[in-house]
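One example copied in:
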Amino acid sequence: MRVAVDGVYFGTNVGRLPDDVIKLAAGVGADGLNWPLHPHYHADPARFAKKIADFGLAVVSLGLMPHISAVPGSEFDFRELVKRALDAAHIFGAPVLDLWTWHPPDVDKAAAQTTLAHNIEAVAPMVADAGCVLSFEFEPDTTLERYDEALTFLAPFGPTVRITADTYHIFRVGDDLLAAAMALGPRIGIIHFSGSHRGEPCSEGSGGPEGSPDHCEYEPFLRAAVKAGYAGDVVLQYKPPVDAEGRPDEEETAASLKRAVAFARTTIASL
């Protein structure tokens, strides 16, 4: 089980360029990256794939952008996006296409779910043929809001269609992490470690941003997921530290990620 740094929260969200994200992940001792299909990160996939490999890293998942899987009227663009993602997955050797089920506030949830279902039906066969999986992330106020809703909605589409399990999203709505892991089991496409405060994941009750404790119980969660059939990787996805003016704090970001990588590895080793 590999530990990866998220290229969205630590890359595109803070304006960090691809080469710098690769160096950051390698420098903190991670095994790999969740690589976002952002224009800057997708401009030259062959070059980036070589550099990632040269730094001893792997791409454990690809984060698909833009987030249009459930947006009515974007069906053609979404299906073309998946085709590009599969080309990239072949180059990077990435087994998981990670998607967020956002929809605009003015779009009815039922309409968004209908669009999502039609899009999955259209792309799932070519994803399966490529040996990859689609992994959809649930989150409050999106098309799929909780783990039980995501599980029910996605179950009819078979094993190619899976669920991204983010500890923060499960915790923040009051769902039990252990119950979620046991229920989702082999349907999990990728796991995101993120603190209950959306900050650095750490031992339960220990400090987070401005001293806020992290209430997520990672070891029971991961142990239950593995026992239920999960055999994938862990991505560290959380808000990077910022300085007093709200700008990314480069020194503390590296220190935080080193701690988070070590914590994730300790959690994995305890299974």
About this structure: The domain at 3-269 is CATH 3.20.20.150 (TIM Barrel).
